[in-house]
Amino acid sequence: MNILRELLARKLGLFGLMTVSFTVVVAILAPWITPYAPDLQLFEGLTLQGAPLPPNSQFWLGTDLLGRDVLSRLIYGAQTSLIIGVAANGVAVLIGSVLGVTAGMLRGIVGAVLMRFTDLMMAFPALLLAIVLAAIFKPSLWIVALVIAMVNWVQVARVIYSETVSLAERDFIDAERGLGASRSRILIRHITPHLVPSIIVFGTLGISTTVLLEATLSYLGIGVQPPIPSWGNIIFENQTYFASAPWLVFFPGFAIVSLALGFNLMGDALREILDPTMKGRH
Amino acid sequence: MTGLPTDTPKAVVLDVRNLTTQVATPTGAKTIIDDVSFQLRPEETLCIAGESGSGKSVTALSIMALLPANARITQGKILLGQSDLLTLSDYQMQSIRGGEIAMIFQEPMTSLNPVMTIGRQLVEAISTHQKIFGDAARKIAISSLDAVRMSESPRRMKQYPHELSGGMRQRVMIAMALSCNPGILIADEPTTALDVTIQAQTLMLMNDLKRDFNTAIILITHDMGVVAEMADRVIIMHEGKIVESQPVIDLFQQPEETYTKALLAAVPKLGSMKDKPITIKYVPGANGSAPPVVEVHNLTVRFDIKDGLLQRPIQRVHAVENVSFDLFCGETLALVGESGCGKSTIGKSLISLIPWNGDITINGLSTGGMSYSEMKTIRRNVQMIFQDPSAALNPRMRVGDLIGEPLEIHNLATGAELQERVAELLHRVDLSPDAIKRYPHEFSGGQRQRICIARALSLGPNVIIADESVSALDVSVQAQVLELMQELQDELGLSYLFISHDMAVVEQICHRVAVMLLGEIVECGPRNLVFNNPQHPYTQRLLDSVPIADPTIVRRDRKLETGDVPSPIRPLNYVPIERKIRDVGGGHFVRDFDQ
User: Fold this and answer.
1) Which of B393, B397, B406 sits opposite A179 (nearest CB)?
2) What's the whole-model pTM score?
């Protein structure tokens, strides 16, 4: 609760928290607050010539090429983005942490192999890897999440590995070994608690990268498949009409940027709060 | 110097009047220097001494206008000649700093830029302050390296800081400070990070330079030995205030204030144990005939230094080379030596924290080749206390959990019994019972070391390895911790392997001492024999280098060395030279040496 209070005390952190909470609430309440179903093609949603409508009093954010309400699609899209953001990032942080800690604790050959594999993954262009994986599996919400997790665990593993290594060399770990503490005890009681701040920070900061990657994949057409709306594929479907109907690209783009920014600000604030060496510096 | 009447010997170069410095804290402004006044005269060494937190460093930083952003000077004057430094702009201060007042810091590695050669750094300092450039600046740089007795100074100019040893780096810092002929040199714990022999060299050098360059020195130190050796006048600070200010001889012989008296009394003085007999108070039944609790035979520890793509070994550190010793019940054996001599490595080998070769027998059991879980029973009998208590305690655990943890690991107590044992242990090391619920960072250094001792005691060991356990503590706290350790030994019959670089502390506590040099024990024997009649030249040099807190002691002239110190890093094919060990009587052994 202390953390929450400190988060509220920081202007930028508070702004991040508000943006994120707003998106979460809207996504949860989607079925009740959306004016139309997200895939409902409305007759009055198109002009007589068949062109989409700009924002007006009936359709607040306008309509798309099929006469669907952009606001409703955006709200349902928030669900997709958040599910992928939280799930994919959660899996990525989990894989990264487990691999990083294992390599950092074991060192030796096992550690070297694990970390060289991580380096290899890091050297691979993330997008290319995602495209290959997406091509192998048939795209669906969960596959997209999995693909993103496969790409994103690498940085987590790197950081957690180096933190574990430096922790394992601290005097108090030597002191524990001198007492005869078992490896699992050292890991659980003495190393993991020190990694928690980093893991929490990755847990939040990582979501913004994930949301962006999902948008990128969906924009490239290998992400979430229509008719399920996601912020990325709304832009993808409508990009060719950017000049004549800019709202179709502008609103989902704005949503992506503000959610990513929200998570980033929140993560930054959390990092400051959880790092005792940064106390009193903000 | 600007407008100073240098003809009168009583002239004052720096006049600090009623200086008060405050820092901002979450609970409001806190005064850390309170109404400090002193004067510095030419060619004088003024020592500001005090324990940690006494405000001595902040005084120096206030003079240099280098205070951190949350601190400010609220009152006072700092007069350099006619001008008050506190009224000068940042820009004006820049030319004073380095030009008229130079400062050297404790850690020479962090004060030098690691990516610039020392030559460039020297030339840069000279160009900035004296507006001398190119070859002329280079010449001055080389001559200032010569002045600090660096060998082959033109070659040194091309070296980077990491290529030099700690003592050499501190000399570079002094050379840089002196290259602009400052009137005042402020040295903040300049030798604290250095080994004693190197410290002796550095102090001697500073004394020579004071004479050659007519520099006035403000020397900030916690070490009363250094004060006795260097100072003309001494200021004792405590909690931001000047407690006492006296010429050095008067201060040591007739201290006026109770605080000064207590401080001086706590300082271990080398040679003060000369005539005291060695007594082992704890006698477990039959005396003398008991087998040693720890036997070490031919212990060797080597580390490979690996490099390159395939991580092939390229060099080898001979950390410990063929070391043998016994440790008896109720006895304190001190391992002394300078940094890198392998003394801590021996401590870690005893509890198998690192791989080693040779034979180690603890309580009759050979620990060679034991697995981690087999070692567990041994660990109940051998415990270690580390140098830095704040690093050796998990900062995220409460003190009660920390002290109870060893018992939990060995399944010796649970629940109410565990609580009881923890309370007992806290009482034993004189900590209040409410410590249980608090975290390590809420305690002072000395209290934290008590927590570590309680932890080590919890398993009821008979051997404790104390690795520089009091080195990080202030002298008064150090004395208390040593007293506690002594009490515990007398009462419980503990055997200590006391690892330390501080000869004076070692003399206070040990029964026998082993002197280490480059991984080997070069001299070993009962305390009084080794300290009163050192045989090996290294032991002699080590004892000779220790600054003694008595200004009346006249020192033998030391030779100022110009080269690098030898290192235990050897090529892969290096075969250690085997030297005979001579028995000089009374259990006193000396390794042969080159004459």
Assistant:
1) B406
2) 0.78
